[in-house]
Amino acid sequence: MKNECSGPFVGLLVIHLKIPDSFSLKDRRQVTRSLLEKARSRFNVSVADLGPEGSHQDACLAFSVVSSSSSSTEERISSLERLIRNMEDSGDFFVIRETREVERNAGFSD
Question: CB–CB of 93/8 below 8 Å?
Answer without folding.
Answer: no
